[in-house]
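Supplementary Methods S3. Input chains for the assembly prediction are listed below.
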Amino acid sequence: MAVAVSLVVVSHSQKLAEGVAELAAQMANEKAMIVAAGGAIDGSLGTSADKVLEALTKAESADGVLVLVDLGSASMAVEIALESLPTWQRERVHLSSAPLVEGAVIAAVEASIGSSLEDVARAAASASTLKKFAGEE
Amino acid sequence: MPVTTEQVIAWLQRSAAALHEQRDYLTQLDSAIGDADHGANMDRGFTAVMDKLPGVADKDAGTILKTVGTTLVSTVGGASGPLYGTAFLRAGMALAGKMELQESDVLSALQAALEGITARGKAKPGEKTMIDALHPAIETFKAALEVGAPLKEALAKATASAEAGMKATIPMLATKGRASYLGERSIGHQDPGATSSWLFLRAMGG
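Predicted structure tokens for the full assembly:
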């Protein structure tokens, strides 16, 4: 795989994280790595800093890693995982507040065309203003 | 009289027992305004802590509390894992190398724990969280020590403040955590995190 920004998808649900990663991967055309980190350590609903750390390590890329999260404590699990990474690796990670599904899909497209981490993050963030139905306010 | 590491372990065991006993109560509180997992999560976390404790029982208080913190972070999937995990890690850092604790050490550890929770959860008093039980408790504990109260008495007063703080979460509007998604409907329910925080303090009294 050529170097590209990688994505880490963090959700309270293992199935949701895997599903979002699957959807996003379809758009990335195998040009960007997308790693799911869903569910608590035993697979129940929740988040796991250990799983996030494992995903961040797997997704490590010279071009950087964009992390997308679902609810509440997912962001805390990500913060704890980041604290155990060496500084050089932590600096290559960007945390996104983008909506999970749309953010991941848009970021996957952007990453697959070789955009920088900054551009991938900006593209993901644009997902929050996406209109799904014509004429919607 | 200083607090020994055996007493720290005994407190953790009493906490584990209280969390196990109150598991359904915490879950019931959490089902009203959260994701109904607080009781199960805390019980699971402290069951894992109990398994780890024998391995560090002869170590300093800092190592014991840090072990509790890393175990909670690794085993608790809800917000209480990162929050209490960070609290115990910070308290452990404050007590690094100590085989016995003075009153001032207990205060430093409690303050470090609260700072950890505040930093991790980015919450402040009045937002219907653990902080609403812990913050008044620590203020009371500090004030009691300052006027020369013995540790046991200071802890009893702190526990009473934690209980009052916990009850004061009932009319609060949640703006942090899963309960914040409920908006106004979070009003009228006691916060499960503040409740487990009170249980930890109550267990200190022995």
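The radius of gyration of chain B is 16 Å. The first strand of chain B starts at residue 3 and ends at 4.
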